[in-house]
Amino acid sequence: MDIRTQQRLDFLTQHNWQSAQITALPFDASFRRYFRLQRADDESILLMDAPPERENVRPFIQIAQHLQHLQLSAPRIFATDINTGFVLLEDFGDATFTRLLNQRADPLPLYLSAVDALIALHQHPQATAIDLPPYDIERLLTEAVLLVDWLLPVITGVETPKIARDSYLHCWQDILTQLPAIPTTLVLRDYHVDNLMQLTGRDGAKACGLLDFQDGLLGASPYDLVSLLEDARRDVPDTLSETLRNHYYQAFPQLDRDAFDTWYTVLGVQRHCKVLGIFVRLFKRDGKAQYLQHLPRLLRLLTRGLSHPVLAPLKQWLIQHKIEENLLTNPNFLALLQQGKQTYTLN
Fold first, then answer.
1. Contacts made by residues 291-294, CB under 8 angstroms, sequence distance 24+
2. Which of 48, 140, 338, 340 would be 292's cystine partner, CB 3.0–4.6 Å?
3. For residue range 97-113, what is the model confidence (pLDDT) as tens digits?
4. Which fold has domain 97-346?
5. Stated pTM of the model
6. CB 341 within 8 Å of CB 292
7. Taking all residues of the chain, what is their mean pLDDT, rounded to a whole number?
């Protein structure tokens, strides 16, 4: 038995779950793993296994408790060991929005539930009453630069020169500093259907179970809405997206729509730049090929967002460096997609 397995058993024994049937759940791009523990009486609970050298469980616990205080459905925390990175938490079941959509569930009620949870969060006067870092320009730039650090070298075949990297960041700096004022809220940051669950027996915003919020920050209110509706992994029809945005707007009659829409577009493009870089990094550095299949969708979303006038300098920079929808004909980019497809198939 390896050290980690022994630590896990010791934690479960301490909390009287050592005899439960344990089932590993599918894991994602992070280093966290989840296990379902089920006793003979069918009582179940989840174990989060977050190696402390890779993950810090404190933010998850902090934000989960805050969301519960706001009357939103984050998993209840039953036991923790901060030093070893183990958490026992509420089992929300298997009804992720992704699974339901793949089973051809009507998308409108699911997405409305997700937007209603955001509305409840953004309307709550205590939403920002939590000690978290700001989602400020410095952090947004650090994320956006992943595009030129990981995707651009694939296209060019060489490391991105410092002068090009600096000019890219300068474009983003100019764009972000001229944006209008916008309400600040708790931003969950990975708000999409993979991380949302349908909870039966709960009403209103509580019917939407929230997962994977440990990277939350205090930032601009449009971020999670654009994360949901411009999903890197799933197409959201324009008609559905428009309906959901209007549903959100109706809850905030005093909202400056022009300011919100500008931020929505800019944060969408920033997120697409970030995720394009992350998905290439996951393959190049970590050997996770399954995310490369989403790159064409991200390029389409990025190209559409760049039509906004405030993003004109960035659009020009990206065209100059061959990062545009025509990238789908670039031999190096196509080779990356093919390499990823072959690797994923073999695995």
1. 291/29, 292/336, 292/337, 292/340, 292/341, 292/344, 293/337, 293/340, 293/341, 293/344, 294/232, 294/233
2. 340
3. 999 999 999 999 999 99
4. Aminoglycoside 3'-phosphotransferase; Chain: A, domain 2 (3.90.1200)
5. 0.94
6. yes
7. 94
